[in-house]
Amino acid sequence: MKNYWTISRKFEQNMNRLQKPKKETFKKRLQNYLIKFKTKSPQITEKYKYFLAGFIEGEGSFYVGLKKNSTSKYGLKVDPAFSVTQNKTGVVHLIAFMVLFQTGRIDFKSGSENTYVFKIENRQSLVEKVIPFYKSYVLPLTCSTKKQIFNNWVNVINKLDQGVHKTSEGLAYEILPLVFASRTKGKREKSLQDYQKLVLLGVRQ
């Protein structure tokens, strides 16, 4: 009987692996975009890199999302991301960002059928690809306000990599203030103090 259940369990595990959809490769995803937008993969020259740097300066965003998450230790998930927005007529430049960074996705911007967004959320890609590019091609020429926003965003990522978010105090008093400092002023659903209270009280809604 023991052998039967062992064989049955292994059979079920093998079937689950077979049924699990294969993860889309970057090469395949890029090819799908080229077909969808009926364009060719652009050549990334040094001159084009500076052109793309201009897009980041004008339409780029360094953002840290805060999401309530019942599976997270303190009920809050911190998600750094980088994005560039562009009208559909210039979507080829978003594809160029994909080619440049060898990662990312392109989707419709929420609430618009004429605007697309290129986005990278993988933290390793942000550290190894986006940050070095920005420091080399954009940071030396950008304004002081955008420099500060970028530096705060980078500090959030560094603290996440250091595990600061693994304590409630570290998340509430070191990371969250940097998150809000990296955001431009505008309408916000919750304040810094609201999120700090959520973390410190362990409230999960």
Distance between the termini: 45 Å
The mean pLDDT is 88
Give, in order, the helices and strands: HHHEEHEEHHHH
Task: Report the CATH architecture.
Answer: Roll
Domain count: 1
**DSSP strand (E) fraction?**
15-25%
CATH superfamily: Homing endonucleases
How many β strands by DSSP?
4
**Biggest sheet: strands, sense, closure?**
4 strands, antiparallel
User: Helicity level, as a percent range?
Assistant: 40-55%
Structural class: alpha+beta
Taken from the alpha-carbon principal axes, the silhouette is globular
Key attributes of the depicted protein:
4 strands; four-stranded antiparallel sheet; Endonuclease I-creI; 205 residues
Summarize the helices and strands and which ones pair or pack.
Blueprint: H1 2-19, H2 26-36, H3 46-59, E1 60-68, E2 76-87, H4 91-101, E3 105-108, E4 115-120, H5 123-137, H6 144-161, H7 168-181, H8 192-201
Antiparallel strand pairs: 1-2, 2-4, 3-4
Helix pairs in contact: 6-7, 7-8
Folded structure, characterized:
The structure is a single chain. The protein has 205 residues and is of the alpha+beta class. The protein has a single domain, classed as Endonuclease I-creI, CATH 3.10.28. It is 54% helix and 15% strand. The protein has eight helices and four strands; from the N terminus they run αααββαββαααα. A four-stranded antiparallel sheet has the order 1-2-4-3. The longest helix is centred in the N-terminal third of the chain and has 18 residues, at 2-19. 21% of the residues are buried. The mean pLDDT is 88.
